[in-house]
Model the fold of this input.
Amino acid sequence: MEKLQVGITGNIITIKCHAKGNPLPVAVWLKNGRKMNNTRRVKILSVKTNILHNTTLTIEKIEYRDSANYTCEFINAFGVANSSGTLLVHGEFFHIQHGEIFHTYKFKYPFDHTEFGCDQ
Done:
């Protein structure tokens, strides 16, 4: 998983992860070490084949409180594999002070959707 990703408030963030294993591992998403569940804004999707488990965490309309360390954890009878990354959520505007003068800038991102992922 990419170690650091920046998102803008109101946008969508998608984190993808996949692992191979026999027996096929179970996926768990953690936010700052606490298990996550589906909510109105948070969607966890898992797709399994014979040897591959793909899982996606999507957070809609991200907010400052979504800034956190996210971990995708795969568990089977032989152990645990995980990958983590940090999401920093910023507002659409940021300010820089030069002496007595404040400058306001607007982030310019061509997309309103950010993705990052991992391989296990």
